[in-house]
Amino acid sequence: MEKERLKYYATDNCVKEVAEKYVDEYACWDLEEICKKKQKGRTFIMIEDAPSQQNPITTFRIEKCFNEFFGIKYISPFKVLLTQIQISLHTCTYILPRLFSKNSDVALQDPPFRLVNEIYSTQYIGHKITCLTLMIMALECFVNENIPSDINEGYDKKGEKKDKDYIERNYDLKSKMQIIMKYNKIVDPRYTTLVSTIIPLQKLRNDFVHLKSDKPNSLHDPCVNCYDKVLSMDLNLMFNKIKEYVKLVNPNAVLD
Question: Which residues, listed in sequence order, are joined to residue 106 by a DSSP beta bridge?
Fold first, then answer.
């Protein structure tokens, strides 16, 4: 999965033809009416008449924010996920902990111990869960993209061909990663170690997504096991492990 969204360009003849057939200098967008639409009808492409830049094409969606109209560019999902991971990691590692002392109450004098208030506890836990969730989303995005398009794993019991689309829909994450190793002929011993390190993250993510109330623990709290795991986890280290895996599969991947 490339960090940058696939870029498209229009030929000079295409720009000329579009201008002749579709451009109306006297036309006016009814942006208010466009923004009333919930989904379809708000996404457009912009073709720039800029031969020196190969006439780039940009996909965007019109949004109304505080009574102004804006075009939101469509960015590569992988880049969006990586950026949000970094924001949440920075927030829960450096920003929020520095605010704990001003947003907590003394619970014990000796030894000194302060109890962080509910607002900042919520934000701290929330950013940790966000990091975990986005990391697995980014990994799944990358893995699906890197399943070979010409893959052929035979047929299932119903006679359906096990091609790229089938594998993306039916195989679990670990099986997909094993297929990538097989078809890319990856022999680096780090690969299996990284897979073994990363897969438990997916299970923890799934535990949060499908939180159950019947998991027994000594505190009789349905969340305590999940919270213990995510709060004790070095998420910066796990993120680096995922990036190491990505680079192992695709050395040219841009992750910064």
Answer: 114
Q: At what angle do helices 77-90 and 235-249 cross, to 10 degrees?
A: 150
* Whole-number Å distance between alpha carbons of 50 and 53: 5
Are 237 and 245 in contact by the 8 Å Cβ rule? The answer is no
- Checking 224-231 for CB contacts under 8 A at 24+ apart, the result is 227/125, 229/204, 230/125, 230/128, 230/129, 230/132, 230/204, 231/125, 231/128
Buried/exposed code over 200-220 (b: 16+ C-beta within 10 A; e: otherwise): ebbebbebeeeeeeeeeeeee
Question: Mind listing the pLDDT tens digit for each residue in 187-242?
Answer: 999 999 999 999 999 999 998 888 766 556 666 666 788 889 999 999 999 999 99
191 HSE (CA, 13 A, CB side): 17
DSSP 96: G
* 204, 132 contact by CB (below 8 A): yes
